[in-house]
Amino acid sequence: MAEADINRETELKLAAQPEDFDRLRAAPAIADRAAGPAATRTLKSTYYDTEDRRLAARKVTLRVRKTGDGFVQTVKSAPDEDGLGRGEWECAVTSAAPDLTLITEDAAIALLGSLSDRELQPIFTSIVERTTQDVTLGEGDEAALIEVAFDRGRIELPDGRSRDLCEVELELKSGTPAALYDLAQELTKAAPLRLEMRTKAERGHALANGASDKALKAEKLVLDPETTVEGAVARIVRACLAHMVANEAVTLAGEDPEGVHQMRVALRRLRSATALFRPFIPAAQYLWLVGEIKWLAGSLGPARDWDVFGEELLAPVRDAFHKADGHGRSAVEDLDALAAAAEAKRLRAYEGVRDAIRSDRYTAFLLGVGSWVEKRGWRDQPVSEESVRLFQPVIGLADHLLNKRHKKAKRAGHGFAHLPVAQRHQLRIALKKLRYAVEFFRSLYDDKPVRRYIQQMAAFQDALGHLNDVATATRLLHELHDDGSRSAPGEPRAAGIVIGWHARGVADTEAALVALWHDFIDTKHFWSKPDTAV
């Protein structure tokens, strides 16, 4: 049984409902594996930061927790790229106030930086009733010891504002991180659970800042030249999942259309990565991954389509008619009626989004992919020329994959000026796959030519994206009342105005679009040409 690093915390958090705690504690996954009695205690932890939130900006945590008759000061680093591990350094202090002079570990001192006790102030306090139970998974050298903590309580600000919290924490004491996913998957059979990626500190700072959840773009991925192919697969898949989960909250709120957009981008990146590394993934695993990605993307798609229609296609036409000082008044009324019908459709689409994200299938997907990565599930295949390459440096493969994607995009756009809409859509998909591959591998190359290549490709992609949005609008307008609702008398006229408006715009920009295609084709590659044998 491998021991956990004394200065590292490895845990998986699951959001739960308090009424499910008894069921979860009694579940065979815990009750049949209990290693000793359960213990309950109340934890009061005060989190500190500077006025300008220097620590929170780097996702560094400094807290002091009341434990029995004493106090423990803890410094934690930002979560690792796998979302499970983080550095943790503890020491006893004499009061609820932090004492930085007692921190002696170089790594913790470096995390805090040039910080003094005088700069620190209490930001929020978490008050939690915690029941812990150790469980053992597996036997012999393969066994893992996990502390299961049932936390119920609240986060409080000095001004009295608070936020309830209820979660199950699975902390690895010894063994491999894959065991956390095994236990989590078993617990989801006992009660509904959701993966919680945010730490208590992140939730507390969000409450203190009074900030609503924001949509987040994918963080830049960093691969070292020595990273193996399987190491690259693991890091890329984890990055895609982290990007998607980071946009859950804002998507559930449904007020910022960028949330569902970023979740779909994360799914497209994940599907693109899966296709990119398909030769190294066993067929059954590949089919499961693609099937779940398609299901979720299909659940999010209608909401995104109606967001785009309302904001980017309908809104500019309505604005133009509203500013016409009374001219075309009947058209304005028709466009307003169309907007109301589209908004009703958008709201219903978001109900489908929420149902998907809150579903057991969604949680099973996240835990399943997490487990697959931790266990390196792709190794479950016969040894072959392809599978052996999983352990070779990814730099030797990146050139080949980028060249392959670039050639596919170039073929898809051959004779671009004369391509019909459907084929231009296929080109757009090929360009997306190319761009995601570039973003996955960009850290392996000199940044300046990579940035220039991406900028040139992005300009062309944006133009093609508008073409696709206009084509999608026609389909959406035909589906506007497929639920049996009745259309207003002027809606067909308004729909014709919107489509005609943008069709004219597409025609006017055709020459510029063709020029952008040629600019992209003429852009120099930033990768070297691979050997034909690769």
Characterization of this structure:
This is CHAD domain-containing protein. It comes from Azospirillum endophyticum. It holds the Pfam family CYTH. The protein is an alpha+beta fold and about 525 residues long. About 50% of the residues lie in helices and about 15% in strands. The protein has helices at about 20-25, 30, 55, 105-110, 180-185, 200-210, 230-245, 250-255, 255-275, 285-320, 330-355, 360-375, 385-390, 395-410, 420-440, 445-480, 490-510, 510-520; strands spanning about 10-15, 40-50, 60-65, 70-75, 85-95, 120-135, 145-155, 160-175, 195. It has an 8-stranded antiparallel barrel. Helix 5 (about 180-185) runs antiparallel to helix 12 (about 360-375) and helix 7 packs antiparallel against helix 9. The longest helix has about 40 residues, at about 285-320. The chain is globular.
